[in-house]
Each structure stands twice: as C-alpha cells, then as structure tokens.
Amino acid sequence: MTSALVLTSVAVDVGTRRKHRRILHNIDLVVDAGESVAIMGASGSGKSTLLAACLGLIPVAHGTVTLRGTDLASCSPARLSALRARHIGMVFQSGELLRELTPLENVALPAVLNGVDAATARSRAAARLAAVGLSDLGSPTDRLSGGERQRVALARALVNDPSLVLADEPTGGLDSTTRDLVVAGLFAVPAATSCGLLVATHDKHVAARADRVFQLSDGKLRPLNVSRR
Amino acid sequence: MKGASAAVTLGLRSRRNSTGALFATLVEGAALIAAAVAAILLAGTHLAYEHRADRDAARLPTGSEEFFAAMEPALDGSPDQRQLLEARARLSAGAPFVLQARFARLSDGLQHSVVLVVRQQDGVAPPPGLPRWPLPGEAFLSSQLLTDGAAEGIATRYGKLAGTIAPEGLTSANERLAYVNPLPGSVPAGQMVPYQAFGGPSRHWWDDPVRVFGDSIGLTPAPYVLVLFLLLAVLPAGGLCLAAGRVTAPARNRRLVTLRTLGASPWQERFVQFGELLPALVVTTVASAGLVSCLVTTDITLPITGYISSAEALRARWIWLVVAALLGLTGGALLVVGRRARAAADSTRPESRDWKWPLWSAFLTPLGLVAAGRLPDLVDPSRRTTWYVSYLACTLLVLLGTPMLLSWIVKGTAAILETWSAPRLSPSLLITCRALLRNPAAVASPAAVIVLSAVIAFQGQFVTNTLGDRARQALAVSTALEGRVAVAMYFDGVRGAQEAIRRTPKGVHVLLVSESDPPEVMGTCEALASVGLTCPPSGQPQIAHLIGGDLQFLPLSIPIDQGTVEVLQGDPAAAAPRFTQQWLVFHSRTAINTEALQEAVVPTTWPNDGPDSPGYSYAGAGFAAAHESTWISLTALFALALLAIAIGCGTYSATLGLGKVLAPIGVLTARPGPFVVAAAALAALPTALGGVVAGLLGLRLTQIPVDAGIALPYGGTLLAGFVGVCIVAAAIQCLAAAFVVRTAAWSWRP
Ligand SMILES: Nc1ncnc2c1ncn2[C@@H]1O[C@H](COP(=O)(O)OP(=O)(O)O)[C@@H](O)[C@H]1O
Ligand SMILES: [Mg+2]
After folding, report:
1. Which atom of ligand 1 is closest in space to residue A51's alpha carbon?
2. What is the maximal distance between C-alpha atoms in chain A?
3. Which residues neighbour A22 within 8 Å (Cβ) at sequence distance 6 or greater?
4. What pLDDT digit, counting tens, does each position of B263-272 carry?
C-alpha cells in the first residue's frame, strides 16, 4: 500500500533569494492511507509553510515531497494542479467558503470543476453534508455559524474522494463544544474513506485525537508520545 | 486633540504596502482632482469673464451729457425723428471723435465687431490697444480676427492694415475686433455717435459695453459656461467623490468598527479617515497648485474649443483660484469621508438599498420613451415652446427612471440566469448572478451615472448643434435671397414703424409681420404678390402655408419651416398698432441698397438695430451656439474621462477582494477559469451596461426631434466616441480583473 504523503529530509527557505531564512530543517514525515497525523506547534513555528510545501505551492530547498508516489518537484505546474484537484482536500482555519454559493453548491463546486456532471455532484455533495451532520442546511452561506462553516468546508474537502486531507488550524476560532463537533467529523474521515489526514494545530485537544502527533519547533519535527490508545 | 497625530498616522499606515490600498488611494485621488479641477474651472471662467467686463468698461467710449439728453426722447418710443437727427449731426460735429460699432460676419458665419472711429480733434487718446489713431482708410485688427479671416482676405477688407490691436485693448485673446477709420463719405453721416473719450463709467443702459462693441457675440456668455461647468464638471466631480467614498468604504469600515470597539472617539475616527485620505490629498494639492500656477503664468489654448485662457486675466485675482482649489479639495474630501462615516455607522446592515424600489419604477423610462416617440403626432412641431417643454419633460422622465430601470434590468437578468445556471451548477454564471442579486446597486449605480452624464452631454451637444444648424439654414437662406430682403424689428414702436414705412425708398415693398403664433402678414396686394402670396379680399384673413421661396425671409424667430401664416391685405402703416411685437420686412425684386435703406430707416429703429439681411443677428447667435457646443464636448469629455478612471479603479479595487476570496478554491481545484470569468464579468458590467444603455437612449431621444422635423439628423460623433470608450474601458476592466484574480491565485499560500 502506497503512503498518501511522504516527506523526505525536506528543508524550506522563506524570504527573497538573496536574503532568505531556513524555517524548516530536515523534515521526515509519512502519512499513510487511513491514518491521521497531527502537527503541533506554536503560532509562527512553520505549520502553514509545511502544508504549503505538501501542496507544492512553495518549492523545497532540499529533500522531496511525494504525493501518492509522485515526486512533486518533477511535476509541471499543470500536472501539479491536477494532482491537487484530484487527490487533496483542504480545510482552512476560517472555511473560505464562497458566499455567492449555497452551502450545497460550495460543496459540489470542486466536483463540478473536476468534470463531474451537475446531478452527480449535487447528490455527492448532499451525501458529504449528511456525513458531517448537516443534511438539511437551509441557511445562506454567510449566515452559517463557525462550526457549520468548518463542517461544510470539510464536506467540500471530501467531495472528490481525495487520498489526502490537509487541515490548517481547522478549529482556530471555535469554542470547545463546536470544536469537538468539528474534530469528531474530521477524525472520522481516515477510517471512513481510508485517506490520509494531516492536521496542523496548536490545540492539544485536537492533536490528542490523532493516531500520531508531531511537535514542530525551531524548524524541526519531533514525534510526541501522546497516544489515545 | 488627544491622540490626533497617532490616529492620523494610523490612517496613513493603512494605506501602505498593499495593492488594494494603492487603488483606494487612486480612486480617491481621481475624485479629489476632479473636484479641484472642476472648482478651478468654475472660478477661472468667472474670473476670465470679470476681467472681460473690466476690460470692456475700460475701453468704453463715454459720450457727452448733452448728447444723451438729446437722445433721451427716443426712449419713450415717440421721438421726433427729425429733431433727433439734427441734434445728432450738430453734436457730432463738435465731438472729439465719432464712433459706430457694427457686427460683421465671416463667410463661415463667425461674427466680429467692426468699430468705425473718426478722430475730429487733436490730443485725444486713441482707443485702448492702439498705438495711434488709424488714418482714413486704415484698420487695426485683432490677431484672432486676422487668423479666422485669413482665407477670405480680412486683412485688407476694411482698408490698409495698420497693425494689430494690443492685448490691453481686447477683452480676451479670442476677441474678433477691428478698429476702422473709414474713408470720408463711405459711411452715411448721422450714423456716427459723438464721444468724448475712451474709458469711464457708463451712464445709460444703452451704452453698456456689449451694446457698443458687441464683444459677447463671438464669445460664449458667462452664465452659460458656468451652468455648463456646474452640470457637467462640478456635479460629476461631486458624484465621483461620493462614489469613491462608497468604493473604498468596506475596507475602512472594518477598521473603523474595530477602532470604535476599542473606544476610539468620533474625532479620532475622523482623524484616521483623514490619515487614510492624506496621500491622495497631498498628491491632488500638489497637482492643483501646479494647475493654478500653470494657469496664471501661461496662456493655454483649450483643446476642442480653441478658447485661450488668459494668464493675465487670472493673475490679477489668482488668490480666488487658490481658494477655489482649496474649496474643491475640501468639499471633495468631505464627500469622500462623510459617505464613509455614515456607512461605518450601519456597516452591519446589508448593502443593497434599492430593493425597496417598487416594480412600477422600472416603467418610468419606457413610459418616457413611448411618450417622447408619440410627441411628433401629439404636439404640433410649429408650437416650439410647447414642443420643447413636452420633449424636455419626456427626457427628464426617461433619465429619472434610468437608475431604477437599470437596477431592475440587473436584478431581472441575474435572477433569470440564476434559475438557469443553478441546476447546471455553472460556477462562473452562478457566482456572477448571486453577486449581482446580492448587491445590484454595485453595478446599477455606476452604470446609471454613466448613462446620465452621457445622455445629458449628448442632449446638450445635440440641442446646441441644432441651434447651429438653424444658423447655417439662416445663412443659406440669406445667401439664396441675394440681398433682396431686409428685416427690422419694432418693439412697441408703432410710430417708429409707421415712420419707417413712410421713409422706405421707392421700389421696396414693405410687409408687416407679427411675432405671434401663427404669424400674421399684412401688406398691400402688390407687396403680398411680390413674395408669392395671393391677395385676400380686404379685411378677410387667409391661411397660407409657408412653403419655401421668398417666404422664408420671415424672421427666424418665427417658425419658418412648416408653419402657417395668416395673410391680411391692408396698409401696414395703418395696421402697425395691431401688433405689439412686429417685424418690418422690406422686399425688392432686385438687391436692396442696404446702406441707403439703413440711412433712411435707422433713426426709426433706434435703439434697435437697423434693417438688415434676415437671420443676420440670429445667425450670429446660432453660430455662437454652435461654438458653445464645443464647450459641451470639452466638459463632457472631461467628466466622462474622470468617470471612466474612477469606475475602472473602483472595479479594480473591488476585484482585489474577490480575488482574495476566490484564490484558495481556484488553486485547490486547479480550475481558476470560472472565477476569472466571474470577476471579469463583474468588473466590466457597469461600464458595458452603462455604455450600451446610454447609446440606445441617446440615439432614440435625438431621433424624435429629427422625426418631428425640428432638428436635422445628427451624426452623433460624441455618442459613438463615448460608446467606443465604454467598450474599450470595459475590455480593460475585464483584463484588469482577470489579471488580479490570476495573480491572487498564483501568490496564494495557506
Ligand atoms: N513568504 C515569507 N517570507 C518571509 N517569512 C515568511 C514567509 N512565509 C512565512 N514566513 C515566516 O515563517 C514562519 C512560519 O510561518 P507559518 O508557517 O505561517 O507559521 P504557523 O502556520 O505555524 O503559524 C513565520 O515566522 C513567518 O513569519
Ligand atoms: Mg498558520
């Protein structure tokens, strides 16, 4: 079985070419299918930068990022886009939903853009929404609560059956009850769809739900022995 | 003020280091510079006219009390003509100089003043701007007249060219003026008026500057230009400031609301807003200072109009230009900021306000159009006033309804497209339609501004052009008449008219024409027959249709093209009391000796002009109107250019926000195409919609007077140019929005 995501001694520099700073050093990380991994770290420790490297949005200074066996460095921009569209689902801190579209349409959008016909996309979206507990959502997108928004975002991330779901501080602005609701939905994903899940968070309650947890500090990734089993 | 400088700095800081902030500054800068330039234009025009009036007063010839006392009886309408002429001749002989001003015309209709002067005593200062008195047969011309009349030999028309008139003797660099000392005997005696000196207070209403020199004929009158600038420069500039405030509001509101929750006082909020506006204010103040110093140091020839802005005229009162610029900037800034503060206060409310408009409001414009279209059938075009008032009412209805109609068009189209695209989940259409439905005013209001300014500008252009057309018609008529006709106006001058008829030389027929509706023509059978009218039995009126021929000589203030006249047979001298406002029409089978006719009749028309070729003065006014239309073109272009800039910038800054929202989904789904399309459509829609609707309305509205036979078909260069500009602008907006969304996607990071 191939791993959803493999990072081998990855280093990332930020800044200009002449004046740059290495913020990630020698990162090794494997996310297998059906497995959840959490990366903990203080704000500014480089979690978002690491996710951007996983998406192939920023080049790595050293090492390789491999998505389902494909080295991202060897991909053309078009191939990279196609890989992201087909295999990665992403959940942002604030949802990033389009308020012009209804929640259902927001969820269906990536499927439609991937060439799925409207009816199929719609029924798939409805199923994904039901899966996150939002089967009869009537409100317009800009009236959703924070928790509903994140769950819609999760449903959207899953609509194309990705092999890897990335979440960047998915519970950033939520209270503890709502957080638990979102986290429950999020961590149910690997088991249900056998895709890999990589969550960046600074919240140890979130991290506690993951199969494996890493600590990111000083640009280095260290495993943490917080096991829920 | 506590924390004032900190607040200003905070506002200033918010305008650094972001593309959105840069464009907000651009939008505000465009609006503020528009306000400043509009204010400077307004003040500059006023100052130029003030200067003109001063100059005119300074060269005004002053007459003797004796002369005016002798002329006084002419004012009560029943002067003893013989006494009057004798007094004039007697007083002329002893005066330092005699003068007569008359209008003349270049072949293309441009009027100029010709001032005949004859010095009769030594030691009298020559007219201002002249180095010496012209010798008999010599002429001094203004350089504008020399330029305009170069092709038709104006330099030698009035005698030997002795030199040009210096600027001190002209009210403006554009004045067409000639001082001529006629050869002895070439001007009928008794027509020259005796004067003492140049310069001095005017004592009587009839020697106001315009009467003496007729300077205003070739120059657009001050109120006209001021109203024009108000309508087409100051108003759009104000609207632009309001719009700029609205465009930049959302980003500011968030900051202001945050500040408010942090306990910022209203004054501190104001200071933050001032800080935000500071970059735009600094740039526009520097630009306005540059414009003012340019205006007071160099003579600038304005494009299209050919008007020369005189540095000298403006320098004398430069402080008022500065005041105007400051007022423009302050007013503009208040409009920008005031709008923002109010928006900040209710930023929690949804944006779209025009949802409240009732459905019937969408039918105002079509109603106005239909009514205007029926006008040619409903209102008799020969009743000009009624016609114009009805037409104006319809046009107003059309324009008033435009914002509502546009809003309904936007909403309706968006709703239809939405129901079509929702089941198909077409992302670009769905996003565009939903954005339109959420805030139709974002598209409808800038589009309405475009339509209003374009249609007003075009209508103005059209109407003045129509006046110009009639001037050209008048010119054509008077050319076709080969001098066989002359007309003179008598205003309540019954005895004057009777006297004129008595004095008319043999071989010239006289007809009396009333300025009523329909006009009445009265004359002897012989006179009526000479112009092709059948002679009705005495006392019995007969309706005749005016159809071409010599009948067109009727004064042009009377509708000549399709009107009817009542023809009466009788002795005009006896009938004179019938009418309060009347024209005497002199008609002959051969060319009338106008000089002789003038000599005989002028004293009876005084203080009106003597008998002259029909349409002569009308043509002058008409050509002035045609010239005025170039001012409309200039100000319209100015207003439209600013609108285009502002709308472009506004859309650009609006798309910046859209780009930010669309970037993540665009990147992650690998298909930014639909989002680029949606952003481009939203950006270009106001301009495209405004341009198309303005073009359609403008064309339709001008077609109606053409159909009614009131106006000649008009090419519509301005409108075509405007629509073209709109299309180009919309294309640029499309590209800009697409570029913004694409770059936002490229640079996006989680
Ligand atoms: N393009 C960039 N240029 C310079 N510094 C950057 C850039 N991107 C991120 N950084 C820096 O890298 C560090 C990590 O940022 P980020 O990955 O966003 O942290 P986190 O998501 O863990 O809060 C921060 O100190 C940030 O300032
Ligand atoms: Mg982060």
Report:
1. 17
2. 54
3. A11, A12, A13, A61, A219
4. 677 777 888 8
The whole-model pTM stands at 0.66
Give me the CATH number covering residue A14. Answer: 3.40.50.300
Determine the structural domain holding residue A171 and report its residue range. 5-224
The nearest alpha carbon in chain A to B673 belongs to: A113
- Candidates A57, A91, A100: best to mutate against B (most CBs of B within 10 A) is A100
The string of pLDDT tens digits covering residues B657-702 is 677 777 787 777 777 788 888 888 888 888 889 889 988 998 888 8
- The minimum-distance atom of ligand 1 relative to the CA of A46 is 17
Contact between A210 and A36 (Cβ < 8 Å): yes
- Non-local (6+) Cβ contacts of B720 within 8 A are none
Interface of A with B (CB under 8 A): 48-49, 51-52, 55, 57-58, 81-82, 84-85, 88, 90, 92, 96, 98-101, 105, 108-110, 112-114, 118, 121-122, 166, 168
Looking at residues A143-166, what average pLDDT do you find?
90
**Interface predicted TM-score of the whole assembly (ipTM), two decimals:** 0.81
Position in ligand 1 atom list of the atom nearest CA A50: 17
Chain B positions in Cβ-Cβ contact with residue A92 (cut-off 8 Å): 664, 750
Ligand 1, CB within 6 Å, residue ranges: A 14-15, 23, 41, 43-49
Give the residue-averaged pLDDT of B579-598.
74
Domain membership flag for residue A155: yes
The count of domains in chain A is 1
Q: Where are the domains of chain B?
A: 4-55+221-345, 63-204, 360-471+619-746, 484-612
Structure tokens at B14: 């918010």
Residue A154: pLDDT over 80: yes
State how far the alpha carbon of A143 is from the alpha carbons of A98, A140, A175, B508, B674, in Å: 12, 6, 18, 90, 24
Closest A-chain CA to B746: A57
Question: Which strands form B177-180's sheet, in the order they lie side by side?
Answer: B160-164, B138-141, B177-180, B111-119, B97-105, B193-195
* Residue A130 distance to chain B (closest CA, Å): 20
User: If pLDDT is split at 50, 70 and 90, which confidence band does B132 have?
Assistant: very high
Q: What is the mean pLDDT of chain B?
A: 76
> Residue A229 falls within a domain, yes or no?
no
